[in-house]
Write a structure and sequence with these properties.
39% of the residues lie in helices and 14% in strands. The protein has 83 residues and is an alpha+beta fold. Strands 1-2 form a two-stranded parallel ribbon. The protein starts with a strand and ends in an 8-residue tail after the last helix.
């Protein structure tokens, strides 16, 4: 993997469990891949799906803010050098 990777997870998620999230993040960082991983307290799987009972508004709002900032940082048009 050569591109930055973002991931947003709940501490009560079992797929993937927080231990696995931390291992993946550590390995990506070891390989020099920029990461933006966040594990939310009092949150489980599918916490961003507002149609689910598992929806956690505060976690989802924060995750969306982080996702949009991540995309802005990494997908914004870069100036092209004059040739």
């Amino acid at each position: 993997i050569k591109c930055p990777v973002a991931g947003f997870f709940g501490v009560h998620d079992s797929n993937p469990p927080p231990e696995d999230v931390r291992k993946v993040e550590a390995e990506l960082k070891r390989l020099g891949v920029e990461t933006d991983f966040h594990i939310y307290e009092d949150t489980g799987h599918a916490f961003m799906d507002s149609d689910q009972k598992r929806y956690v508004a505060a976690s989802a709002k924060d995750a969306w803010t982080r996702i949009l900032a991540f995309l802005e940082r990494h997908l914004a048009e870069q100036p092209v050098a004059a040739t």
